[in-house]
Amino acid sequence: MATASTKMPEPHAKSEAREASTPDPWEAAYLRFETPEEEIDKFIGRLKRLGARQWPRDAEIVELFCGRGNGLIALQRLGFTRLEGVDLSPRLIAQYQGSNCIVADCRELPFADRSKDVLIVQGGLHHLPNLPGDLDQTFSEMQRVLRKGGRVMFVEPWLTPFLMFVHFVSEIPLVRRLSNKMDALATMTEHEIRTYTQWLGQPELIKKVARAHFVPVHESFAWGKWNFVGTPR
Ligand SMILES: C[S@@+](CC[C@H](N)C(=O)[O-])C[C@H]1O[C@@H](n2cnc3c(N)ncnc32)[C@H](O)[C@@H]1O
């Protein structure tokens, strides 16, 4: 069973860490958007595309904003052994069967300086409430925690024509009635609309903050995603 750390960063996490017992409509939609196996396959594909097969199998890897932990399962299936996850939601972490997930705020990472080799974020940064402040703080924390020569990998939504099309379609009432997946997407978007539109609306700012902390090794924009792999400055 997953363990929840007692660390609860001040001051924001107290108000934002969600209670394990309270239902959350965004989380309910996220859980029905993809099955765990669909999600794991997607993560494995991404990891391979972004060069994870070249990383040492004993690298210390943390998946930030890890949700229900399927990114960790993908890493495990690729042979990685030293894995940890961090997420603000005790309910999502409770769905993960491993013992290496911590409930914490990624703006204040519960790890020692220079203690990790790879930090991964897949679809978490766009949940940060304040840009650029929270992004800068999260990236500073990642820089602090990474060893020299370490890596970051981000995959986040990006307003490409494909993403615009997907959102247009997912908001059509008939499509929502016919497709559980599209309805889940539209529901998630409704519940995260403030941070999501803030994120999608500031691409240059986001790239600038990322480059201030990390040297890009790979960067691409495709299928509604920003894919970034970098090393700490
Ligand atoms: C879109 S989900 C992505 C989950 C997982 N990476 C995936 O792709 O399935 C975003 C996650 O970020 C978490 N989250 C939001 N703000 C956070 C914060 N400040 N620190 C840690 N986790 C946070 C949410 O609880 C949620 O699980």
Distance between the termini: 36 Å
The general outline is: globular
Strand content: 15-25%
CATH architecture: 3-Layer(aba) Sandwich
Short key terms for the protein model shown above:
11 helices; Rossmann fold; globular; 43% helix; binds S-adenosylmethionine; 233 residues; seven-stranded mixed sheet; disordered N terminus; alpha/beta
Map the helices and strands.
Elements: H1 12-16, H2 25-33, H3 36-49, E1 60-64, H4 70-77, E2 82-87, H5 90-94, E3 101-103, E4 116-122, H6 133-145, E5 146-157, H7 161-170, H8 173-178, H9 180-191, H10 193-200, H11 203-213, E6 214-222, E7 225-232
Parallel strand pairs: 1-2, 1-4, 2-3, 4-5
Antiparallel strand pairs: 5-7, 6-7
Bound molecules: S-adenosylmethionine.
S-adenosylmethionine is lined by residues 30, 39, 65-67, 70-71, 86-89, 92, 105-107, 122-124, 127.
How would you describe this protein?
There is one protein chain. The protein is of the alpha/beta class. It has a single domain (12-232), classed as Rossmann fold (3-Layer(aba) Sandwich), CATH 3.40.50. 43% of the residues lie in helices and 21% in strands. Strands 3-2-1-4-5-7-6 form a 7-stranded mixed beta sheet. α4 links the parallel β1 (60-64) and β2 (82-87). The chain starts with 11 loop residues before the first helix and ends with a strand. 35% of the residues are buried. Residues 1-19 have low confidence and may be disordered. S-adenosylmethionine binds at residues 30, 39, 65-67, 70-71, 86-89, 92, 105-107, 122-124, 127.
